[in-house]
Amino acid sequence: MASIDYPLERPKVGTKDWGFAEHMYDWVATVDHKKLGIMYIVSALLFLVIAGIMALVIRTQLALPNGHVVAPDTYNRLFTMHGTTMVFLLGMPLVAGFSNYLVPLMIGARDMAFPRLNAFGFWIFLFGGFLLYFSYLGGSGLYGAGSAPDVGWFAYAPLTEKPFSLGHSTDYWALGIIVSGIGTIASAINVIATTFSLRCPGMTLSRMPMFVWVMLIDSWLILVAFPPLTAAQIMLLLDRYLGANFFYTQRGGSAVLWQHLFWIFGHPEVYILIFPAFAILSEVIPIFSRKPIFGRPAMVGAVVAIGFISLGVWAHHMFAVGMTSYANSFFAASTMLVGIPTGIKIFNWTATMYGGKVNLKTPMLFCCGFLLQFLIAGLTGIMLAIAPFDWQLHDSYFVVGHFHFTLAEGLVFGIFAGLYYWFPKITGRMYNEKLGKWHFWLFVIGVNLTFIPMHFAGILGMPRRIYTYQAGRGWEFWQFSATIGAYIQAIAVAIYVWNVVHSAIKGEPAGDDPWDGWTLEWATTSPPPEYNFEKLPVVRSSRPLWDLKHPHDPDWKYE
Amino acid sequence: MADALDLTADALTLEREWKTPDRGTVGIIFLIITESVLFLTFVAVYLVYIGASVTGPYPKDVLETPILATVCLLSSSLTIVAAEWALERNRIGMFRIWWLVTIVLGLYFLFDTGMEWKKLIYVDHLTISTNLFGTTFYSLVGLHASHVTVGMIFLLLVIGVNLLGFPIETQKRRVKFLSWYWHFVDAVWVIVFTVVYIISTR
Ligand SMILES: [Cu+2]
After folding, report:
1. Containing domain of residue A221, as a range?
2. What is the model's pTM?
3. Whether B121 contacts chain A with CB within 8 A
4. What is the tens place of the pLDDT at every residue in A227-279?
5. What range does the domain containing B160 cover?
């Protein structure tokens, strides 16, 4: 195989007498996929904390009617930065981080296909994040106090045009996302090339772990969904700087065009964000049920189907814009269609658990949480896919509740499952199971207390993005309980952070294979050496470690 | 544990016969796919805005079909293949000649675009802010021209390091990828040409 560039044994560097500077240099200059993966995940979690604090401020403002915690324009900046950060600086680096760390290990490779491109992708992503946050200092130029973007995370035209958005905050928004998007595309190309080219002997596409399959399709979605966004951002910057007329309604431009371009990106983006959770569930549930995944070909088929159908549903975000009834019907129908493969996946995960020896350790708890919460999110999604229903609830708190159910409960539950599951692999130590359970239960209570009431506030007519409201409209109870829920979530995340920091330093040594795993990452040491495997593995089935541990009853006899 | 992963004779055969696609090839193919989507977006926006300009000038009044430049750019796709062919046979002199011809053809295309823009700006007073035609024309043609420029930089880099004595025979794979990128840029021009100079001037 033509994929190994360096000799298997590298000169050992004496790590003992390394000072702070040497360690820093090691991390900054690294091209190791595991270190880059960890840096992606850690920076994602830092942005999670920042955007989470913003969410707490928002919730505090809305806890009671006539709130005075922040001024209206500060509130606009808060929800814009919260949304932008969560999507582009939390969700996207998690995609890149998990695929970086795990894909080479799972397919038996020594690194990604293009290690230096990989390092470039991470640093350009981080620079994009800094660019966005620099707007707090530079948003009004040097002559004014700082101002972050305040146009909402989907930044509808013509609000973003120069006459309506003075200063540079919108420019930082566009530039930050273009720049971090370049990093995302670089990492997606890398994942695809790695998956196709660096699979170890015997690792055919049909034997590839489900995780790798899902991340492969995820990378495909990134490559077709990000360019329209980049194009739209370039057009916006041309409008703002060179006086172009793309979204300038006074000169014949179309504000609706922005909506189309944004959601052509925006809907696949929802799947790009949720796919890591799908990938993680497909690994964790079989291990903790002691059963191979149910209906593997159907699972792969469903992911591939989502990878294509989700490209044709974007205008369900635009039912209220006044499209033709043909367009409305088409996008309502295609949106319901994409629910079918998603349903197949939920069915197959449940069927994997059915009759298995289910072991409710923390990762598995989060998977079960995901299944229940994501089911509800999917059902409210189908409700919103019905165009006339959407007309009633468009831009209301019902929509806010719905997409937080998919992302905050779907994505984040899946991510936590993965973070607990691979924690022993990444650090070599075991997390604290008791704290993990506390985290899970507090989180379940917190998210449901936050986001279920939002649906009711929405049905009662509360529009999204209002910075305060008057008493007596029936929203107080729902808003107050949402705020309580948000603080419970914050406590749960604080427990998680403590668990990670404490266990990474003082946790029990976990051993190389604490879960009795079946995929190749458990075949190497914890944490894995820089070269991953002393000898490239040779596999004959989709559960190579099962074959190894059960030489008398290997999988490949039945495949 | 890793070396316990079976190394029976059977596994060794499997290892020896195992083949996967070249990673550079996969990478460049998917780079071209994602770039295509970027162009597709700009082309779609151009098509949507045909006839949407509130004021003139309009495409049919000011655009002149750049036949010569188009012929140059498209034939540069052939000359780069000739250069690759020569490199494959280690005829470095031939390679250099065809490579330089490719560069000259590409440079003429860029020069022609520059002259066209100069005429449009100074004679016809069409800028990116004049109307929607100007907006979409300059952004689409400019996006393409910027890709030609990037390709040109790499073409110059290859011949530059080669003339400075770097053995280009060792870089056949990378030359091949650059040539694919160049073909892609040319193919995009066929679409841009059709959309801008044929469809929108009718
Ligand atoms: Cu959507």
Report:
1. 32-549
2. 0.92
3. no
4. 999 999 999 999 999 999 999 888 889 999 999 999 999 999 999 999 999 99
5. 22-199
